[in-house]
Amino acid sequence: MIVYRNKFIRILECWDDEQPDTENVDLIRQFQQPRSIDGMFCREFYTILIDLHQDPDVLLSRINRDTRYEIRRGTRDNFVYELLDGRDAAAFKEFCDFYDEFAERKNQPKMRRAWLSLLAQADCFRLSRIADEGGSTMVWHGYHRTHNRVTLLYSASTWLSGVTSAGRSKLGRANRFQHWQDLLRFRDDHISVYDFGGWYEGNTDQKRLQINKFKEEFGGQIIRNFICERPLTWKGSLFLRIRQSLLGNAI
Q1: CB of 84 within 8 A of CB of 126?
Q2: Pairwise CA distance, residues 192 & 248, whole Å
Q3: For residue 119, what are the contacts with CB-CB under 8 A and spacing of at least 6?
Q4: d(Cα 159, Cα 85) in Å, to the nearest integer?
Q5: Which segments in the chain show pLDDT lower than 50?
Q6: Are 37 and 227 in contact (CB under 8 A)?
Q7: What are the residues facing 44 on neighbouring strands?
Q8: How far apart are CA 14 and CA 28, in angstroms?
Q9: Is the CB of residue 35 less than 8 Å from the CB of residue 42?
Q10: How many whole angstroms separate alpha carbon 129 and alpha carbon 117?
Q11: How far apart are the C-alpha atoms of 13 and 4, rounded to whole Å?
Q12: What is the value of pTM for the model shown?
């Protein structure tokens, strides 16, 4: 869990089954809760979970047939896979720089480095990277990690402008191969649950529906979770009221 200042309040964030420490904070925020918590403002969302207690052969068998083919073909592409500790300063910077370039191309917000640095310092952040055989990075993944669960926070890939369809296919294989290696490595680290970090429940946003389709290829279960918040001081209550009036249920 981490504590940080947002505008005029101090927020405590905890994930999964972490138990909050309420001392000297204005607002508690609990992510990835299996049910709403009495006395807290809770927002529901959907995500895809994979049970990592399963044997690797079972995990692979539950993956879409075409995706299994891509994973197996990826083993022949000589991809270079790494799983890295977020406390590695060089890897952390390289990932953030790579993601910021990716976000700029996609017109998305850049990395919240101060927040992410707190996760890394708390030993709650993991990175994985896939590179081609020449060593050029193709895809980064960033994960929140507790003792029981990993949650995909970020995925960023290299720029494909002018690349052939064969090059785009290779990048897709790299990403699928990387996810498969992530599943295996986290399983070996005795993590129980792999969380894809969200599943879009709507039916209008085509880009998000495509992301859903990609995540569903890996055979997980679509489930409902909650993000729950409780103010502990008048400042926390005021912050929640202002945010809800401006952004509704968004966090």
Answers
A1: yes
A2: 33
A3: 2, 86, 125, 144
A4: 25
A5: none
A6: no
A7: 226
A8: 8
A9: no
A10: 18
A11: 8
A12: 0.90
Q: Counting beta carbons within 10 angstroms of the beta carbon of residue 192, is it exposed (0 to 12), middle (13 to 18) or buried (19 or more)?
A: middle
Instruction: Evaluate whether 118 touches 6 at the Cβ level (below 8 Å).
Output: no
DSSP annotation string for 10-39: EEEEEETTPPP--TT-SEEEEEEESS--TT
Q: Which domains does the chain have, with CATH numbers?
A: 2-44+225-247 (no CATH), 54-191 (3.40.630.30)
Long-range contacts of 239-247 (CB under 8 A, 24+ apart): 239/6, 239/7, 239/8, 239/9, 239/26, 239/27, 240/27, 240/41, 244/41
Distance, CA of 149 to CA of 191 (rounded, Å): 6
Provide φ and ψ at 92, rounded to 5°.
-60, -45
Nearest to 70, CA basis, from 186, 170, 160, 141: 170
Q: Residue 78 contacts by C-beta under 8 Å, 6 or more apart in sequence?
A: 132, 133
139's tokens: 């895809």
